[in-house]
Amino acid sequence: MTTPTTARPGVRIARPIPPDALDELRSTDDAGRPTVPETDEEGGALLRCCLRRSEPGESIALVSYAPLRRWAAETGADPGPYDEQGPVFVHARACPRPAGDALPFTNSHRTVRRYSHDGRILGGRLVEDPDGFDAAFAEAFADPEVALVHVRAVEYGCFLYEVRRR
């Protein structure tokens, strides 16, 4: 198991899926499908609820999640065609929130995708080095138009977590 990169002063904090959204997703996902828990026999799934990898034998669920749509509902933004939903793994039942402020899932190439205050994509950056996240976040938030970023897996484009402007 890879140790997450530890955040330092001034570094942005990874935001897992919020508890109220998790409560909904554990019943019905953002595509309107009922959630079906399963036992993770192998472990290693990237859990967006607690920002860690699953352990063998844990009860998890693969659900469709629309992070930008949920953010837009909070802020009044209208992401229009940039609204997207995709698969994420979560624990099937409530779990502890992430401990500390370490950046999770930095052991592979990631994309830091930037979004404006109205929910439009403003660009992104490929992060190939686990130590490159600080620079990617600093670059993103140096632009006053950037409201938040999504960290996404390169392989499938899946949402991993959100980082917001402070």
Short key terms for the protein model shown above:
single chain; 166 residues; alpha+beta; 4-stranded antiparallel beta sheet; disordered N terminus
Summarize the structure.
This protein has 166 residues and is an alpha+beta fold. It is built from three helices and nine strands.
Written description of the protein model:
Strand 2 and strand 3 form a beta hairpin. The N terminus is likely disordered. The protein starts with 18 loop residues before the first helix and ends with a strand. The chain is an alpha+beta fold. The strands form three sheets. The protein has a four-stranded antiparallel sheet with strand order 7-6-8-9, with helices on one face. Strands 1-4-5 form a three-stranded antiparallel sheet, with no helix packed on it. The protein has a two-stranded antiparallel ribbon with strand order 2-3.
Radius of gyration: 15 Å
What percentage of the residues does DSSP assign to strands (E)?
A: 25-35%
Which consecutive residue ranges, at least 5 long each, have pLDDT under 50? 1-9
Q: What class do helices, strands and sheet pairing give?
A: alpha+beta
Report the mean per-residue pLDDT as an integer.
Answer: 92
Report helical residue fraction.
10-25%
Sheet with the most strands: spatial strand order: 7-6-8-9
Instruction: Please count the beta strands (DSSP E, at least 2 residues each).
Output: 9
Distance from first to last alpha carbon: 30 Å
Work out the helix count: 3
The largest sheet is: 4 strands, antiparallel
- Which outline best applies? globular
Helix/strand order, N-terminal first: HEEEEHEEEHEE
